[in-house]
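Researcher: I'd like a candidate sequence for this fold, 462 residues long. If you have to choose between options at a position, lean toward the conservative one.
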């Protein structure tokens, strides 16, 4: 069982011993730490926090603990109930709230849950803010409200529909074109809140949804990470239903993957590529993704006359670089679309609407769209090291060895060769180096990764 504390929140498995898992006591402690930080940071008379959750079995329990802790601190709560991560993100500024908490462990299995923490803009906290909250939790530096000053809970279950309204009003979402295309789409909502939000969005767009695992009961029918090896059922159903394509989201609906009309994966990396291709064709500008994302986004951006830049891994890092470079779209290669015209957060509803518009205007199939892009393939491996090995020194040695290549050291070591790249990142929890590679074929990506592993062993003297 596990409890992981980080600047982005607290994540852990349900049950077990306090301090080692996400128990009710841990949930209360970290909700109180967030409340303490909020009150000290904002320093005002009244405070409001938006709270929503995905459909995990533990979600209702954790949400009640979190909300009642906040009202015990004199903070008013807007309860969205079953929601999505991007829905909570847009609700925070719409409610003029001081922050937000999303109860979701994203793509982790059902025994996990987490508190993800937002600022008053509805964006994830930065490192400085996260460290302050961890310090409040460590010191248990909390001050609770007296009886006449307790907060109140206001229930508002309209925000998924309000979120959809916002998506449909985006300038680059062509509702008429989508309706005219008469798409039929299979949706795998992994029995979480995507099963509520995505079919509802499609219905508003005149798309016929075929629902698969869209009952928000928290019993995930397969591993909830939207990877090829977990998605056999929807791949078969797309073909059986003669659908135009399939949509897969993770439990909190911030990762988006597509299945083409033949039942083949479009590729999570290409979700952002396709949406960016459409946005850049209509709006000139720059793009951002993280260092472990596909080179295809760089190629598409340059084709449209824009500039591409890569950030350190992590949504907060992507968002900051997008702001710094005035990027018109960005995100992560795991299917996370960040479109600033909507908000600075990964949003599968926005991504779905942009993708549908792209398809409708291009009058092509999903497989034809994929074939139009530069074709890259990834390998993701890891190397186990001895606990006494200095991983930072090892990565520095690898950077020095390849100093004649295009090197980035903002997040591990990224080596850009002419026809492929390698990204080496250390684990924060165990003596492991993760090796990500991308090349023009799967065989080449694997070969490059294997060669880099041997290189690391030689440098480390293993």
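Model: Candidate sequence:
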């Amino acid at each position: 069982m596990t409890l992981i504390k980080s600047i982005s929140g607290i994540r852990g498995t349900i049950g077990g011993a306090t301090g080692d898992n996400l128990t009710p006591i841990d949930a209360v402690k970290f909700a109180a730490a967030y409340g303490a930080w909020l009150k000290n940071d904002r320093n005002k008379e009244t405070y409001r926090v938006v709270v929503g959750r995905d459909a995990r079995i533990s979600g209702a329990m954790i949400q009640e603990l979190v909300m009642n802790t906040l009202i015990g601190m004199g903070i008013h709560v807007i309860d969205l109930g079953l929601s999505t991560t991007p829905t909570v993100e847009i609700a925070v500024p719409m409610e003029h709230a001081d922050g937000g908490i999303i109860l979701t462990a994203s793509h982790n299995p059902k025994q996990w849950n987490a508190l993800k923490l937002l600022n008053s803009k509805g964006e994830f906290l930065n490192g400085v803010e996260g460290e302050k909250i961890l310090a409040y939790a460590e010191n248990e530096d909390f001050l609770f409200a007296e009886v006449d000053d307790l907060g109140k809970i206001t229930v508002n279950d309209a925000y998924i529909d309000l979120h959809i309204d916002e998506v449909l009003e985006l300038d680059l979402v062509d509702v008429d074109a989508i309706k005219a295309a008469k798409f039929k789409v299979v949706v795998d909502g992994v029995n979480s809140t995507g099963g509520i939000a995505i079919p509802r969005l499609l219905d508003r767009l005149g798309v016929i949804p075929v629902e698969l695992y869209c009952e928000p009961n928290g019993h995930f029918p397969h591993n909830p990470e939207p990877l090829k090896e977990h998605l056999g059922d929807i791949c078969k159903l797309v073909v059986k239903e003669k659908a135009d394509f399939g949509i897969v989201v993770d439990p909190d609906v911030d990762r988006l993957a597509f299945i083409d009309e033949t039942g083949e994966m479009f590729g999570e990396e290409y979700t952002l590529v396709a949406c960016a291709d459409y946005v850049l064709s209509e709006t000139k500008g720059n793009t951002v993704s993280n260092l472990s994302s596909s080179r295809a986004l760089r190629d598409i951006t340059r084709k449209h006359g824009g500039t591409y830049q890569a950030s350190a891994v992590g949504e907060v890092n992507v968002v900051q670089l997008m702001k710094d470079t005035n990027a018109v779209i960005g995100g992560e290669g795991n299917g996370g679309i960040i479109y600033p015209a909507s908000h600075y957060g990964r949003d599968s509803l926005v991504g779905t609407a942009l993708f549908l518009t792209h398809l409708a205007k291009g009058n092509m199939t999903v497989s034809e769209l994929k074939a139009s892009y530069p074709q890259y393939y990834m390998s993701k491996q890891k190397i186990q090291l001895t606990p006494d090995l200095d991983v930072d020194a090892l990565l520095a040695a690898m950077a020095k060895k390849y100093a004649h290549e295009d090197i980035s050291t903002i997040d591990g070591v990224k080596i850009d060769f002419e026809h492929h790249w390698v990204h080496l990142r250390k684990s924060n929890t165990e003596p492991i180096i993760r090796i990500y590679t991308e090349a023009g074929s799967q065989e080449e990506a694997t070969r490059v990764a294997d060669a880099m592993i041997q290189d690391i062993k030689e440098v480390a003297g293993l």
